[in-house]
Predict the structure of YtkA-like domain-containing protein.
Amino acid sequence: MPQPIEVKLTVTPTSVKVNEKMSFEAKVTQGGSNVDQAQEVTFEFWKDGSEKHSKVTVTSAGDGKYVMVKSFSEAGSYHVISHVTADSQHSMPSAVFDVK
């Protein structure tokens, strides 16, 4: 049985102003080693109270990191889930961040 994948989701910074850029990073490891060949890494975003979700697929930036930079045009509290599939395993860590 393969070792479980581990995914650490980081949002930097956790609070921004409207249209300011922020970084989303999923760091993927397995057994202490970086995973640069994940089958899929997708960030899913939505605003509190909204039915509308958007998904963005990202590729490896090396060192087990999957990174995207994004800004938001509306103030509010937002959610992000990183959907990561690697070695036939799926992990979905999530985070909350604010746009003011």
Observations:
- The chain has a mean pLDDT of 97.
- The radius of gyration is 14 Å.
- The chain has one domain: 5-99.
